Amino acid sequence: MVSKWEKIVTENGSYELDLWPNLEILTSNALSKAAFGSNYEEGKKLFDLQMELSELVMKSFPLPGASLLPTKTNRRVKEIAKEVRSSIEGIITKRLKAMERENAGISYDDLLGVLLESNSRQIKEGVNKNLGMSIEEVIEECEFFYFAGHESTSVLIMWALILLSKHLDGQERARQEILQVLGGKKPDFDDLSRLKIVNMILLETLRLYPPGVTFARVLGETTKLGNITLPCGVQVNIPTLFVHRDQEIWGNNANEFNPERFSEGVASSTNGKFGYFPFGFGPRVCIGQNFAMLEAKVALAMFLQHFTFEISPSYVHVPYLVVTLQAQYGAQVILRKVVKSE
Ligand code: HEM
């Protein structure tokens, strides 16, 4: 991505870029590699189907049972589900054949490889041969992993860059930290843990623009919430976005971008109150949170190392929900190359 952008920004010049399509390719590529060991081109079909599905889901009528009606949208949603399934099945069949050919000589360190290998080990060694997953279950795991992981991370990187394009002081502080830690080289794992300011910027971005604005829990027992008694089995929605901007938790500047509030860590930013959960909480907390934070740190570090970002006059600030919290009219910024001091 950096070399692609370097080609389009002329020396001493500037270029107006919509970040969104670029970041979608970036995170889709990263997740395709982590999940299937494949590249963007191979995962592209899944990516296009997911885009179409998100749009359709947002358009669909939010009434119980409405998804069962034989409407054009519902028919297309079903077709997409089938296409996704057969696309992932194709990737898995190809892998199983390769594993057979290589006679387990090579191990694959992507999600699919780990799932298939641990699965065949469990079937071979397990007392109960039914413990292994069926191919159907492997397909479902891969499908969910891909869909849960790619768009949310591009949304995080996009809002972080938009916020930094509006807060140029914060952008320059982050760049100085990155240049101090990395100089001109690419980041490695140890470098990333030393990027404190970048980490604070990402935490603050997730507070103001959590990619998932709400998530749900079904009550396991009758529960009292203030004066209301909720029966067992009721679904409760937890409004992450509202809690993240609640002035009782975050103070009068709750709506302002202030990464410094995380300088002493997450717990002290909320004065010990339970008010920050961009990745959910409890036993079903996001399993990809470390992956997402690492990926976002690498992306910010490499982008800020090479480019400056300024908000474009054509950018219109309208966050809107298409499954995740996106920018309705695009994420246009003005890109310039960082001037390297001698
Ligand atoms: C900024 C990026 C991300 C955000 C904000 C995010 C957010 C979330 C949230 C809010 C949940 C629901 C948690 C709950 O119910 O308590 C979740 C679940 C999940 N996420 Fe993420 N996620 C991100 C990236 C990823 C990535 C990169 C992956 C995969 C590599 C991933 C895989 C999953 C999976 C598999 C679940 C379901 C866990 C379960 O039900 O046990 N997520 N995520």
Descriptors:
two-stranded antiparallel ribbon; 13 helices; 342 residues; mainly alpha; binds protoporphyrin IX containing FE; Cytochrome p450
Describe this structure in words.
The protein starts with a helix and ends in a 5-residue tail after the last strand. The protein has a 3-stranded antiparallel beta sheet. It has a two-stranded antiparallel ribbon with strand order 2-5. Helix 3 runs antiparallel to helix 4 and helix 7 packs antiparallel against helix 9. The mean pLDDT is 88. Helix content is 54%, strand content 11%. It has 342 residues and is mainly alpha-helical. It has a domain at 13-166 and 307-337: Cytochrome p450 (Orthogonal Bundle), CATH 1.10.630. The chain contains 13 helices and 9 strands. Protoporphyrin IX containing FE binds at residues 144-145, 148-149, 152-153, 156, 211-212, 215, 278-282, 284-288, 291-292. Protoporphyrin IX containing FE (HEM) binds next to helix 6 and helix 13. Belongs to the cytochrome P450 family.
